[in-house]
Amino acid sequence: RWRNLLVSFAHSVLAGLWALFSLWHSPELLSDIQDGYSVSGHLLVCFSSGYFIHDTLDIIFNHQSRSSWEYLVHHAMAISAFVSLIVTGRFLVAAVLLLLVEVSNIFLTVRMLLKMSNVPSPALYEANKYINLVMYFAFRLAPQAYLTWYFLRYVEVQGQGAFLAANLLLLDAMILMYFSRLLRSDFFPSLRKGSAGRDVDGEKFLID
């Protein structure tokens, strides 16, 4: 689990900073989400697709499929969407915007590592808890909300557009569910036990 989290952390740092750099270096991409293109953005989507494939295989080969099925669903959605973008060359800007979520994942992973290490540093955990919340809004909820609005308003609902819009809507539901679990765990600890008595702190789905 440590190895898996450290690989996830490395991907979050690289992909998050890469997405920020791509948009900073080519801000004109934001004016053409459907057909905008950059070599950097294309390579970023390829890189992240490779990570999702690697992590999927890691979960399966380590016999964690049953406990991490939500994670596998998320990865299947990401891989199928990203492969379609790589093949067609369209909507790459949308993928780069979505990969801003990796900036948020840096702090989610730090949260998990602090919990697993059992280091007596409540001040560090408390600081990360609030930074994590801000980053969740800025780099996960905000880009997701903007892209959902954009697809529903401007993208023709057929072919690849319909497929990606369906993926976005499913991801919306998952993100809101994960957000509610995170809030219960870090800000409403009296509700941290799930209906089946499961402690959500240790769930891997809080990473991605």
Account of the protein in words:
This protein has 208 residues and is mostly helical. The chain has one domain (1-25, 34-185). Helices cover 73% and strands 0% of the residues. It contains seven helices and no strands. The protein has helices at residues 2-25, 39-61, 69-88, 92-98, 101-117, 122-154, 159-186. Helix 1 runs antiparallel to helix 5. The longest helix has 33 residues, at 122-154. The chain is globular and about 50 Å long. The two termini are 15 Å apart. Residues 194-202 have low confidence and may be disordered.
List strands and helices in order, with pairings:
Elements: H1 2-25, H2 39-61, H3 69-88, H4 92-98, H5 101-117, H6 122-154, H7 159-186
State the main characteristics.
mainly alpha; single chain; 0% strand; 208 residues; 7 helices; 73% helix
Could you tell me how far the N terminus lies from the C terminus, measured between alpha carbons in angstroms?
Answer: 15 Å
Structural class: mainly alpha
Radius of gyration: 17 Å
Q: How many domain units?
A: 1
What's the average pLDDT?
88
Sheet with most strands: none
Order of H and E elements? HHHHHHH
Number of alpha- plus pi-helical segments = 7
| Uncertain spans | 194-202
What is the percentage of strand-forming residues?
under 5%
What's the oligomerization state?
single chain
Helix content bin:
over 70%
How would you describe the shape? globular
Q: What's the total number of strands?
A: 0
